[in-house]
Amino acid sequence: MAGVYIHIPFCKQACYYCNFHFSTSTKLVPALMNGILKEIEWRKNYLEEEPVETIYFGGGTPSIITTQNLQRIIEKIKDTFSVTTTAEITLEANPDDICEDKLIEWREIGINRLSIGIQSFEDADLRWMNRAHTANQSINCLQLATKYFTNISIDLIYGSPTLSNEQWKKNVDYALAFHIPHLSCYALTVETKTVLAILIDKQKKENIDTNKQAVQFELLMDWLHIAGLEHYEISNFAKPGFRSKHNSSYWNGKLYAGFGPSAHSFNRHSRQWNIANNALYIQSIEKGELNFEKEILSPTQQLNEYIMTRLRTKEGINFLDDQWLATDDTTKNEIILSAKKWETTGDIFFDNNFFCLTNKGKFLADGIAADLFR
Ligand code: SF4
């Protein structure tokens, strides 16, 4: 089984913390649409005829483009690949793009899952992040979206200076009150070269307090555990049956093809990524070629990739996984030895057939994974 990702690189305004690829000018939408449709056609063999069970529109802000354009892409994917009849088709949408008419249209063209960029229900917090929507829009869009979709995920951000623990609780309570079955919750990170990094550097914005983030992450895990959501990946929580199939395929090492500027693809042995520039992406396609870089993954890189992704999941490193079974005994013993060190500090938990991160270890996931790398 395989997945398809489409990157729609346009946004209404730039959130201060964002380091994704996007443009706030939509004048290239028509040319980019033609480019994406051509790229899908050209790369029809990338997925090695594996059935596609997930399609994911990410960005940027895919809800910014017309339903007709979304439909053209879905149809092209269906014409090109063998898409299963039960495929999960997710659209990332921002609250300020959501209205009753669009929800009905999206459902009609086959979108069956929404991932809504709520981030917060607090105006001060949204302003601090320079989000394009207000707290009222966060609430109103969920009132509407839950009328038309049952499979909904919302993104929430914690750990900003404007979010107290009480307000964080209020944000999570809103999600629970709307019976949202999937939550993706991220600690606000200050990525280099973002507007946020520059503003903090110039002391125009308060820096992030990582201790506060750790506390808010612990609170989150407690609240959602009580609410019956499964913590199945470090940043992701789901009611039974509502795990994201698309993101799970990344964590389970399945094939995926990404189309559009900056989109990544993975076929187990190599990884490739398109140029992160709308004009250059379009220019290259108009010349009949695709502008991308490719990295062939060595066996060690494949193993490290596996450690990195699997350690973030509830299932952890399973001794029956193909990748683990294909690893030589000396390397496996070295990894287990390193993991045992983290067991003594209470960051890793060992069971008969697997080991995984404890709640304490989850906040240190990247560092622990790097320590286990070969
Ligand atoms: S809406 Fe998303 S992609 Fe666009 S600027 Fe904000 S965080 Fe980045």
Structural class: alpha/beta
Q: What is the beta-strand fraction?
A: 15-25%
* First-to-last CA distance: 28 Å
The CATH homologous superfamily of the largest domain corresponds to tm_1862 like domain
Task: Kindly summarize this structure in a few lines.
The chain has 374 residues and is α/β, with parallel strands linked by helices. The protein folds into 2 domains: 2-249, tm_1862 like domain (pyruvate-formate lyase- activating enzyme), CATH 3.80.30.20; 300-374, Arc Repressor Mutant, subunit A (Orthogonal Bundle), CATH 1.10.10. It is 42% helix and 21% strand.
How would you describe the overall organization of this protein?
The chain has 374 residues and is an alpha/beta fold. The protein has 15 helices and 15 strands. 42% of the residues lie in helices and 21% in strands. A 9-stranded mixed beta sheet has the order 7-8-6-5-4-3-2-1-9, with helices on both faces. Strands 10-11-12 form a 3-stranded antiparallel beta sheet, with no helix packed on it. Strands 13-15-14 form a 3-stranded antiparallel beta sheet. The longest helix has 17 residues. The model has no long low-confidence stretch (mean pLDDT 96). Iron/sulfur cluster binds next to loops.
